[in-house]
Amino acid sequence: MSFAFQLSSVTCQFGDFTALDSIGLNIEAGEQVALIGPSGSGKTTLLKVLNTTRRQEAGSFSVFGHEPEQLSPKELRAVRSTIATIPQHLGLVPNLTAVQNVILGQGGRRGLFRSIRDLLFPSAPDKFAIHELLDRVGIEEKLFSRVSELSGGQKQRVAIARALFQKPEALFADEPVSSVDPARAKDTIRLFRELSDELGFTLCVSLHDVTLAKEYFPRLIGLRAGKIVFDGAPQDLEGDALKALYQLSDEEMMRDA
Amino acid sequence: MPDPATASSSIGSKRWVFVGFTLIFLVCAWKLGLTPKGLIPADSNHWERTGRFFQAALQPALDYEDANVPDDAEPILVKGMRGILQTLKFAFGAMSLAVPTALVLGFFGSSAWWPEPCGKGTKMILRAVFGASRFLMSFLRSIHELIWALLFLSAMGVSPLAGMVALALPFSGTLGKVFSELIDEEARDAAEALKAIGHGPLQTFLVGIFPRALPNLITYSFYRFECALRSSAVLGFVGIETIGLYIQLSHEEFYYREVWTYLYLLIAMIVVVDLWGATIRRRLQTTEGGCV
Question: pLDDT, tens digit, for every residue of B148-191?
Fold first, then answer.
């Protein structure tokens, strides 16, 4: 069978630093995956490979049966328009309103001129649909607020709404709960899960919090120093497996000290 | 924390910079033949004139000092206001030409819209366009508006269009340069996020970077509008009919009280425009990023 995302021996380097070291990984359409591991283990780079914005130095990668490096810029944009990504710092335009930011979620499909028109004169059906989405994520009253005037949590909701308005086949979120309190973190992860169940998109979220990952995701992928050290169900991530992921080796302790 | 050793040495080098500038100043002053004595008027005639000029500040003319002005001429305040209005018209007209030109030049003088990655050939063309635009902007602003005005006046005669274009050219250069820099300094995180969901390079620029830079562009344009007002007034000195022309004519006849009337009107206009600009700046101010 063909997978939605297929990586074999993918290696990514930044100069001398190896961010991803010969990664082999398959993700099926509709799967819900948590990406866990310590800081600097390569989670962000892996997400960037998956959403086609980072090209690997070695190995092969295909998304929905396409190899990004074989595609023309136009075809690549078409593939990207089906993949939503919520970067760690959200990537919203701060002095545009919530509705303007969300409408840009469709920009990949709609193209240049339509996007400009959307910003200046959003159509009534779009405004209606975006109001529904903002209602779904709990900030419908912020439809015409400038993003810069929203709180951190509200900004994140706008970013989620933008991703949903895109009607994605897959949604990636990079450390979505790294800067929120535990209760809010749980709400956010639950929201991602519910949306994925409801709309059927593939979900891949990178997380620091193993407990949270184990509670909400049927499949966990553990990265450490650019290598996959765990790939399986939450109940299998116990004891030695967990240690292998997080416990510092003597060498690493020396380096950190 | 800075290393104390290098910190003290950087203070030392700053001291040498200061000493250097002082030396250059002294050499220039000597070469130009400047002496403190030059500040004092040479004869009693000059003293008297200086005194009259500053005295006139306290009693600006409400009627013409010139006895030859016919009785049915328009009152001086009306003439002054007409001059102010003319000054505004020139400044506004020049800015209306300069801002669109600067947007085009600034766009080509910025690298924020370049597709990434792109082929070698494309990159070379982009760099050439970038360089040409930067060069054109430097050229336009390296010539002062008064010199442009002299050029256009000798070519076209004293015409309003000559004055307007003379103002618009150097202003396009300065605005364009600052526009391109403001755009290039804008954060790229939103642009990256939009590219990742399939926006093209130009689209990313127009929806993800330009709107973000826009408040700063508007604020800067307002500041330049104030500069254009001053320059427009000065264009009067080369014969364009703005408040500067009236100031110059009255000054030539030693009608200092008239000069002050016009100066007060000019100051009042600048203050009003400044207040208006401040209101707009406040409205544009965002909690994040802010304005220059």
Answer: 999 998 888 888 888 999 999 999 999 999 999 999 999 999 99
Closest approach of B206 to chain A, Cα-based (Å):
8
User: Are B207 and A146 a contacting pair at CB < 8 A?
Assistant: no
Alpha carbons A115 and B86: distance in angstroms, whole number: 41
Residue A203 CB contacts under 8 Å (≥ 6 apart), including other chains: A31, A32, A33, A170, A171, A192, A193, A196
Q: How far apart are CA B9 and CA B3, in angstroms?
A: 10
Distance CA(B241)–CA(B162), nearest Å, equals 12
Spatial CA neighbour of A175 closest among A77, A1, A12, A46: A46
Confidence of residue B289 (pLDDT cuts 50, 70, 90): very low
Do A93 and B206 make contact, defined as CB atoms within 8 angstroms? Answer: no
ipTM: 0.91
What are B60-117's pLDDT values in tens digits? 888 888 778 888 888 889 999 999 999 999 999 999 999 999 999 999 999 999 987 7
Beta bridge partners of A232: A220
B72 touches chain A (CB under 8 A): no
Contacts of B66 (CB under 8 A, 6+ apart): B253, B255
